[in-house]
């Protein structure tokens, strides 16, 4: 049986899709058969971030409507053969994701994969509820700012009440906090909440901290999941995140402000 | 409590609800709009709340024209008028047209929905809440005290007919004695609340409060809300 992981946040633009792509790739890199699903009907950008937008013929919605088989809609990743992407369509029909349809597709994926990663849309409406419904674990992506923390809190409450596990009275969904776009410098300058502030407010175990970095934009422009950006801080931070999810201990990195080196200071770097 | 009707399509059950009463000083919509703008922080607690409109102060006024406008303003501000009270027969007729229920109840002032001086019969408290109560969540200990071991986060709400004990930070709203028990109290390890209320008398708080972030005990001293440090 596959484990289903929802990447969610409440607030928009915090890094869910970036994280879904990097995290799913990280699981696949470690040998797990993984599928990543785009639940953001209407916006659809997971395929761009994964660099497979040109290969989309059928999608999640077609499969739900019985217009295509799951095998026809699954796209194999460019670099990893045990990673698949299930893209979504740009339809504006909000009812496209029927509860039964999603359940049917999830049941089928359960047979084929070790991990199912669900990229949730922002908000707390139907799309987000569908994405979290089947979750066994949730990665709550949060930026170090008050509004993002508040929305994450909201979504954690919804996870505890509206997931399938909650409805069936099973063990609750495993909660993980992922702090993204973290800038130690801006924390020090008091412009952002610190890691400690966010932990204290949300009280959810911390899975990782992804620093703010221009590499993310480079990666998504090239359609390469950030975990493949060799040597970059974000690639290492995502790798640590995956390792921790799989039960390894990793010290936190990229949370202290870098001391500018003697030479940098000398030459005004 | 639920009584099964003959057909399965309907089930009757009883419930006691706490409603906020808005006592209008006039039926003129403009001052209402204005006050809402000026006090948006305090009135923000009415977001999403069902409210009862009290017309005790508007006995002399003709309502049929103005009431629809007032209802519209309230809806735009996110609260749902469910009924009116203290209405004249003409005002009642206008309210009927708008589908508002007639509610009977004690006279009350806008800040308090009391008075039930006696402590109601309370049943023993349920097991404590172990997990943080999160934004958008609400927990009501009906006929009980409430014990909360974790935090009550901003945007969350705890209510109890009796006392409320919170052994974590209180960052959301806490309403004790919601059935009118004026002896109910709130105890918390860290007071950072958005709103506290006892027996319908409420107060909003901000970080300037001298006990902000400290352990506190909140109770009614007559009509006044008293906030004291928890330690002597
Ligand atoms: N660690 C980071 N450093 C810098 N930029 C980042 C980082 N993570 C994400 N971004 C940028 O933030 C923007 C939003 O990211 P992304 O699309 O992953 O968010 P999202 O939560 O999926 O958004 P939506 O709610 O619209 O689905 C993108 O432009 C992305 O490049
Ligand atoms: Mg996205």
Biggest sheet of chain B, in brief?
A: 5 strands, mixed
Morphology call of chain B: globular
Q: Approximately how much beta-strand content do the residues of chain A carry?
A: 15-25%
CATH architecture tag of the largest domain in chain B: 3 Solenoid
Number-wise, the strands of chain B total 16
CATH topology of the largest domain in chain B: Pectate Lyase C-like
Please provide a written account of the structure:
The complex is a heterodimer of chains A (269) and B (232). Chain A contains 13 helices and eight strands. Chain A has helices spanning 16-29, 46-49, 60-64, 70-73, 99-112, 126-133, 146-162, 164-167, 184-188, 195-202, 215-222, 233-245, 262-266, and strands at residues 3-8, 34-38, 75-76, 83-86, 115-119, 137-142, 174-182, 206-211. In chain A, strands 3-4-2-5-1-6-7-8 form an eight-stranded mixed beta sheet, with helices on both faces. In chain A, strand 3 (75-76) and strand 4 form a beta hairpin. In chain A, helix 1 (16-29) crosses helix 12. Chain A starts with a strand and ends with a helix. Helices cover 15% and strands 30% of the residues of chain B. Chain B has four helices and 16 strands. Chain B has helices spanning 29-38, 40-43, 66-76, 89-97, and strands spanning 3-4, 11-12, 20-23, 50-54, 80-85, 101-102, 138-141, 146-148, 157-160, 164-170, 173-176, 186-191, 195-198, 201-204, 216-221, 224-229. The radius of gyration of chain B is 19 Å and the shape is globular. Classes of the chains: A alpha/beta (269), B alpha/beta (232). Bound molecules: adenosine-5'-triphosphate (ATP) and magnesium ion (MG). Residues 9, 12-18, 40, 121-122, 180-181, 210, 212-213, 216-217, 220, 234 of chain A line the site of adenosine-5'-triphosphate.
């Amino acid at each position: 049986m596959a484990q289903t992981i929802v990447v969610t946040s409440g607030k928009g633009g915090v890094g869910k899709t970036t994280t879904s792509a990097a995290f799913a790739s990280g699981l696949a890199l470690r040998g797990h058969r993984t599928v990543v699903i785009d639940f953001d009907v209407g916006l659809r950008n997971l395929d761009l971030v994964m660099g497979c937008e040109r290969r989309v013929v059928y999608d999640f919605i077609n499969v739900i409507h019985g217009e295509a088989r799951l095998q026809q809609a699954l796209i194999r990743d460019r670099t990893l053969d045990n990673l698949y992407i299930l893209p979504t369509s740009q339809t504006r029909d909000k009812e496209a994701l029927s509860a039964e349809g999603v359940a049917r597709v999830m049941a089928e994926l359960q047979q084929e994969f070790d991990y199912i990663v669900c990229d949730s849309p922002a908000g707390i409406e139907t799309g987000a509820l569908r994405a979290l419904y089947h979750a066994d674990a949730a990665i709550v992506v949060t930026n170090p700012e008050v509004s993002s923390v508040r929305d994450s809190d909201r979504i954690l409450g919804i996870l505890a009440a509206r997931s399938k596990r909650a409805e069936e009275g099973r063990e609750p969904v495993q909660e993980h906090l992922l702090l993204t776009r973290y800038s130690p410098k801006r924390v020090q300058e008091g412009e952002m909440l610190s890691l400690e502030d966010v932990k204290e407010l949300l009280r959810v175990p911390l899975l990782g901290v992804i620093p703010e970095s221009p590499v993310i934009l480079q990666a998504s422009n090239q359609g390469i999941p950030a975990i493949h950006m060799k040597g970059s801080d974000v690639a290492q931070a995502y790798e640590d995140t995956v390792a921790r999810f799989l039960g390894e201990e990793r010290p936190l990195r990229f949370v202290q402000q870098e001391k500018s080196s003697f030479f940098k200071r000398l030459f005004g770097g | 409590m639920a009584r099964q009707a003959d057909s399965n399509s309907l089930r009757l059950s009883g419930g006691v609800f706490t409603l906020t009463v808005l006592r209008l000083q006039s039926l003129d919509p403009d001052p209402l709009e204005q006050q809402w703008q000026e006090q948006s922080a305090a009135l923000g607690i009415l977001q999403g709340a069902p409210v009862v409109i009290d017309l005790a102060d508007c006995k002399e006024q003709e309502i049929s024209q103005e009431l629809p406008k007032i209802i519209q303003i309230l809806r735009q501000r996110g609260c749902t008028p469910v009924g009116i009270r203290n209405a004249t027969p003409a005002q009642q007729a206008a309210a009927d047209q708008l589908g508002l229920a007639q509610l009977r109840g004690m006279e009350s002032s806008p800040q308090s929905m009391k008075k039930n001086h006696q402590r109601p019969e309370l049943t023993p408290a349920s097991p404590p809440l172990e997990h943080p109560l999160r934004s958008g969540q609400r927990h009501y200990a009906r006929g009980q005290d409430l014990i909360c071991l974790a935090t009550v986060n901003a945007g969350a709400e705890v209510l109890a007919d009796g006392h409320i004990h919170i052994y974590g930070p209180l960052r959301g709203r806490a309403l004790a004695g919601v059935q009118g028990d004026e002896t109910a109290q709130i105890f918390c390890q860290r007071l950072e609340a958005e709103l506290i209320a006892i027996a319908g008398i409420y107060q909003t708080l901000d970080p300037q409060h001298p006990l902000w972030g400290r352990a506190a005990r909140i109770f009614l001293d007559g009509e006044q809300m008293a906030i004291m440090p928890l330690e002597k």
